Amino acid sequence: MPKSARPRTLCAVSLLAFCTGCSDVQTPSAPESAALSDPPTEANPERNAYFGDLHVHTANSFDAFVLGTTATPDDAYRFAKGEPLRHPGGFDMQLREPFDFLAVTDHAYYLGITRAMANPESPMSRHPDAKALTSVGTSLVRMRALRVGAQFVHPQSPRFREIDDPATSRAAWLDNINTANRHNDPGRFTAFIGYEYTSGPRFRNLHRNVLFRGDEAPEMPFSQFDSHNPEDLWAWMDALREQGMESLAIPHNSNQSNGQMFALVDYSGNPLDADYASVRIRNEPLVEISQTKGTSETHPVLSPRDEWAGFETLPYRVGSRDPLLLHGSYVREAQLNGLLLADQQGFDPFKVGVIGSSDTHNGSSGGEERDYWGPAGMMHADAVSRGSVPDASGVYQGDPAFVTFGAAGLAGVWAERNTRASLYDAMRRKETFGTSGTRIKVRFFAGYDLPAIDSRHLVSEAYAGGVPMGGDLEARANQTPAFLAWALRDPLSAPLQRVQIVKGWIAEGETREAVFDVACSDDGAIDPATHRCPDNGARVNVADCSVMEGTGARELKARWRDPGFDPGQRAFYYVRVLEDPICRWSTWDAIRAGVPPREGVPTTIQERAWSSPIWYTPPS
To answer: In Å, what is the CA distance from 416 to each residue of 44, 316, 355, 446, 500?
Structure first.
């Protein structure tokens, strides 16, 4: 039986937890203007579903280059448009379908520094640790490099900020800005200017990706070197907004925040108040619900009656075997606590919509279950290094968290057209959804005048008679709202199994939650007592990953009313869509290696999508 080895370099891998042939860094210059070509399509008032990734790291990220990634921002955008990209491990990566949009979000701290260290013409190449940080080699070499790099990253280290060089980082920032503007092609492909704010005090993940609406960005991004307090980031964003520079921040990996991302106190430990809520929700209308380092929807401990709550959850902190605090770390609980705050104190700092993204450090996406590339360069270049297959001696290597990583996530946006302004405005109004990597299209409406499910003008009538995902539904005297949930499968993924509506509400001063199946595949009838679809019989043969044919659905939709609706109770509702099961990436790795799947790791998964909620507010 393969045995687990104690990780050799947990302290080195802690850099991943924190951030979790080389080209010259671009010489500073004025930012280029965005592409000005006319959009080839008219705006669609019923809105289109666009898919993309808002969390991608390239060689300009300190840790990505240490991990062996040499892909540039230009490479990342070309990959998103459908071109192949070489993995540091020597194989090609390519999307089966291009993305509609992308944001390169390199870490603001030490931006471009390690890439410059590999350039013999840069003064940074003469730093004593430059060779150790940039040597090309195996996953073991990269782990040693991470151990060196960790000294410069953690605030408690005496070498914190030692290799900071503003001129080099400014050049890399201009490279990212100019590359996004060059690749932006309104109506065809949207490239957002963005970066990652990587605050991680005492190994608590408070990371955010910051996206800009237009083709201009500040002279330098606000980083952890400026402050570890996200409230200072919001103040900086507000100041930019007053100057006409619009942006939003998207928190991610709340599951790794050790209870801090959605804490019920501010950064200084003070109780939350209305001013805090107003500033936070103005700057952070969305949260990343799923990505390679786990899903942050909920957890079985927090939602024990939700049979699907354990999807791709990380059991401990990346880079350690330390358990994680669950309360304050998951999105559904935060949204419930927001309802409670609104009910008791009149403000809600956690009224957030959702997206998914990858957090790849390869300049690519995270791949998919059958073709998983791993997110961390040479650290995940093969099945042994990512812990899904034992080495020749039967020992599982690497960080124990690696095998619990998910393949990726994706952002879905309902917008009138594929432009920066249209997509950004959709994110502002939270008409967004996240997926675990599949391209399920999800619609969700609530209202008192919604059309019949078979209406020929379903979407236009739903917009006219209700509110879409991300919206607010006001009370209407003596009326119960209806909900319209509609999902269309990804033709390159598994068929749909069921559509669910997740409800959170306040009753007698306490938070409550429930999951309702509202549409079943294979003509299944929902049990009125359990609110569950019957088993549709979908199965996977884990010996070869073949799936049972003839189950699942191409499309599922339902017009539903909440059987427990109380007009006096504050509530939210969101849609979750589940596909039929398929093999998990770790099972595919095991099959290719001719070994049994690793014990204790799920052999199959059900890819899924989550809509942003709709909030119901009772009469004042």
So the answer is: 5, 41, 18, 20, 26
* Tokens matching residue 173: 């920032």
Residue-wise pLDDT tens digits, 431-468:
999 999 999 999 999 999 999 999 999 999 999 999 99
Going by pLDDT thresholds of 50, 70 and 90, the confidence category of residue 617 is: very high
Which of left, alpha, beta for 155 (phi over 0: left; psi -120 to 50: alpha)? alpha
Q: How far apart are the C-alpha atoms of 483 and 446, rounded to whole Å?
A: 4
Q: What b/e string do you get for 583-599 counting C-beta neighbours within 10 Å, with b at 16 or more? A: bbbbbbbbbeeeebbbe
Query: How many whole angstroms separate alpha carbon 582 and alpha carbon 587?
Result: 10
pLDDT tens per residue across span 254-298: 999 999 999 999 999 999 999 999 999 999 999 999 999 999 999
Q: Which two tokens stand for residue 183?
A: 């690749």
3-state secondary structure of 501: strand
CA distance 441 to 486: 8
- Residue 374: CB atoms within 10 Å: 28
Pull the structure tokens for residue 81. 């448009």
Q: What is the C-alpha separation between 436 and 577, in angstroms, rounded? A: 11
Give per-residue burial for 248-279: e unless 16+ CB within 10 Å, then b: bbbbbbbbbbbbbbbbeebbeeeebeeebbeb
- Is 256:372 a contact under the CB 8 Å cutoff? no
* CB-facing half-sphere around the CA of 404: CA atoms within 13 A: 19
